[in-house]
Design goal:
This protein has helices at about 1-15, 40-45, 60-70, 85, 120-125, 150-155, 165-175, 175-185, 195-205, 215-225, 240-250, 250-255, 285-290, 325-335, 355-370, 375, and strands at about 20-25, 30-35, 275, 300, 345, 350. It is mainly alpha-helical. β5 (about 345) and β6 form a beta hairpin.
Length: about 375
C-alpha cells in the first residue's frame, strides 16, 4: 500500500507542474517570454523522497531562470544553438539526428540522450550520483560525469556543443536586463556568479520528466488493484499486453530500472552500463575511453525507454532509424564481443531471441505505450523565446 500511494502522489504531482504563467518581455528579437508561475503551496506539497534535489527556497524562480538559459542561443559561441537545439521537447527532449549540430556547424560525437525519459531527472541523477558501475546512474553515454551540475558545465564549455567560457556565461547573466531580473528573483541580495547559471539550468532540467504515458496510467491502476505487474493490463490491447510479456522476458533485465519498481524487481542491482554487442571493434570505446580499461571497451549507458517512440535514431551513434531495426538487431545480430554483457549471452554465445514478425510487432506496440504525449504540450517546458 505504501508504494501504491507514492505512485499516486507522483502521478498527481506531475500534473500540477507549470500551469499558470505571467507575461514579461525578453530582449531577444522582441519576442514575448511567458514565465511559468508556481503556487508556493504546490511546491510545498512536493515529496522530498521523489524530488531529492529541490532547493528549499525560490524553487520556482530558479526553474524560470534556468528555462530561459536552456533555450537562449546567446549561450553558444556563435549565437545559433542552445541546449534546446539538441534537446527538443517534441522529441522527448532528444534530437532526430544521429549527431546533433553544435557551435559553428560542428557535429557532436554521440547521439543526444533524451532528457524526458524518466519520471524525474532531479532524483534520478541526484547530486549523490556515483561512479560508472554503481547502481546510481551517472551522466553521458560514458557516464563520465557524476552529477547534473557537472554535466551542464561540461556541455556549455564543450567546443563542439555550446563552446563558451564560464566568464561568458557570467557576462550574459550580468549584462542582459531580463537575466538581471531573473537572477534577482532566484538569488535575492546576491551578486551574480557563473555558478548561478549552472544551478538554474540544472534546476530546470531536473523538473523534466515523463509520468503520463499510457503505460504509467495502466501500471498505477494495476497496482491499486493489488495485481502482479506481469498480469495483463485492463487498458492495454491484446497486442500491447503481449508486447509487455515479451519485454519482461527479453528486455527487462537491462531496461527494467527505467520504470522503477513499477515493472522491474531487482533491476536496480545491475550495472547502469553495458556492452550490447553492436560491433566486434568499436571506434568509440565508450566507458573504456574514460577509464582506459580494456574490459570497458564498447560499454555505454543503458538508456531509459520512456518516450522511445519519439527519440529516434537509436544507440550512442544513432545507427538505427526505427524501433523495428533495433528489435531486429537484438533478435539476431548481436556481435560476440569479448565484453558482451552477460545478460545478452546464452551458453557463452550471443542470445538469439527468435521472435517472429508478430512478436516483433507486439513489442513495438508495447514500447509505444511508453510515450508521454502530455509533455509535448506542457507550457512550462516550452521555448520562452517563441510566440
Amino acid at each position: 500500500m505504501k508504494n501504491i500511494s507514492k505512485f499516486s502522489q507522483f502521478l498527481f504531482l506531475g500534473f500540477i507542474f507549470f500551469f499558470g504563467c505571467s507575461q514579461e518581455e525578453v530582449d531577444q528579437g522582441s519576442k514575448p517570454f511567458n514565465q511559468p508561475y508556481y503556487n508556493e503551496s504546490e511546491w510545498a506539497a512536493l515529496s522530498e523522497e521523489l524530488f531529492l534535489t529541490l532547493e528549499p527556497h525560490n524553487r520556482d524562480d530558479l526553474a524560470r531562470f534556468g528555462r530561459v538559459l536552456f533555450y537562449d542561443k546567446f549561450l553558444s559561441l556563435d549565437g545559433k544553438v542552445s541546449c534546446g537545439s539538441c534537446h527538443n521537447r517534441r522529441l522527448g527532449f532528444g534530437d532526430d539526428q544521429a549527431f546533433s549540430v553544435g557551435v559553428d556547424g560542428q557535429l557532436t560525437k554521440r547521439n543526444s540522450i533524451a532528457l524526458a525519459s524518466i519520471p524525474n531527472l532531479g532524483s534520478h541523477y541526484s547530486q549523490s550520483s556515483s561512479s560508472i558501475f554503481a547502481s546510481q546512474p551517472a551522466l553521458f553515454w560514458d557516464e563520465r560525469e557524476k552529477n547534473m551540475s557537472e554535466q551542464v558545465l561540461n556541455t556549455i564549455e564543450n567546443q563542439e556543443e555550446l563552446g563558451i567560457s564560464r566568464e561568458t556565461l557570467l557576462d550574459l547573466i550580468t549584462e542582459k536586463p531580463h537575466y538581471q531580473v531573473l537572477h534577482s528573483k532566484a538569488f535575492p541580495d546576491s551578486k551574480p556568479q557563473y555558478e548561478d547559471g549552472i544551478e538554474a539550468i540544472r534546476r530546470f532540467i531536473s523538473t523534466i520528466g515523463a509520468i503520463s504515458s499510457e503505460f504509467d496510467e495502466a501500471a498505477i491502476q494495476h497496482l491499486r488493484s493489488h495485481e502482479d505487474i506481469s498480469t495483463s493490463f485492463n487498458t492495454f490491447s491484446i497486442n500491447e499486453n503481449r508486447g509487455k510479456d515479451l519485454f519482461l522476458k527479453h528486455c527487462n533485465s537491462c531496461h527494467g530500472s527505467s520504470f522503477g519498481k513499477r515493472l522491474a524487481i531487482g533491476a536496480e542491482k545491475f550495472p547502469t552500463v553495458a556492452n550490447n554487442g553492436l560491433d566486434m571493434n568499436y571506434r568509440d570505446k565508450g566507458v573504456g575511453a574514460v577509464t582506459q580499461i580494456k574490459t570497458h571497451h564498447g560499454v555505454f549507458k543503458i538508456p531509459s525507454l520512456k518516450n522511445i517512440e519519439l527519440t529516434a535514431p537509436y544507440m550512442h551513434d544513432g545507427r538505427f532509424e526505427t524501433l523495428e531495426q533495433v528489435i531486429n538487431f537484438y533478435n539476431e545480430d548481436i556481435q560476440n564481443h569479448i565484453n558482451l554483457d552477460h545478460r545478452l549471452k546464452e551458453n557463452g554465445l550471443p542470445k538469439k531471441l527468435e521472435m517472429d514478425d508478430d512478436q516483433k510487432e507486439a513489442l513495438v506496440a508495447f514500447l509505444r505505450t511508453l510515450t508521454d504525449d502530455y509533455l509535448i504540450f506542457r507550457h512550462g517546458w516550452s521555448d520562452p523565446f517563441k510566440n
